[in-house]
Amino acid sequence: LTGAGKPSRMRVLAQQTEPDAGTFSCGHGVSAGYYAQEHEGIRAGATVMDHLKTVGLPESQLRTLLGTFGLFGDVAYQDAGTLSGGEKTKLALAQLVTGRHNLLLLDEPTNNLDPPSRDAIGDALSDWPGAVVLVSHDPDFVARLEPSRVLMMPDGDLDYWSEDMLELVALA
After folding, report:
1. Which spans in the chain are helix H?
2. What is the 3-state secondary structure (H, E, C) of 80-125?
3. 159 falls in which pLDDT band (50, 70, 90)?
């Protein structure tokens, strides 16, 4: 729902913003990675591969990961500042997965993606072993991730997920 405070709540969970009231802290051993729609982690002047090299994986594994997210061939050596919005989304999500986080906070990750890219990223994230907190208006993407719980906004009611909630996703 527009105006329900979803991005603000995600920034609090990512510990980028203090809550207006109350307190928040992650549990022991939680490492959260945050995807925001603005791609502020993508740096112009650095290649796509430069954005991933910091994790210490061999280049062959990083190229395989990029391929999983639909970034193929010479794109790996392209200046990340010249990527399209969809390519920046793919790179930002690939960075999160390589960041060794056990919690992903994803705020509208399917914006700027074409349907095949949404499917590929949905498949990649559905195999991911950690927890995901997702804000999305894309019922197909949500269904692909097979959620177990849902937080209904703006009331904040937490419930178990059921397939009949997919129609609410598109309305939110």
Report:
1. 6-13, 48-52, 59-68, 85-98, 115-126, 139-145, 166-171
2. HHHCCHHHHHHHHHHHHHHCCCCEEEEECCCCCCCHHHHHHHHHHH
3. confident
Mapped onto helix, strand or coil, the DSSP state of residue 32 is strand
Spatial CB neighbours of 123, under 8 Å, sequence gap ≥ 6: 144
8 A C-beta contact, residue 108 and residue 141: no
Of 150, 108, 107, 104, the closest CA to residue 127 belongs to 104
Q: Are 171 and 152 in contact (CB under 8 A)?
A: no
- Using alpha carbons, list the distances in angstroms from residue 100 to 16, 20, 136, 146: 19, 30, 23, 22
pLDDT band at 172 (very low <50, low <70, confident <90, very high): low
Q: How far apart are CA 3 and CA 43, in angstroms?
A: 30
98: nearest Cα among 62, 134, 71, 47: 62
CB 35 within 8 Å of CB 104: yes
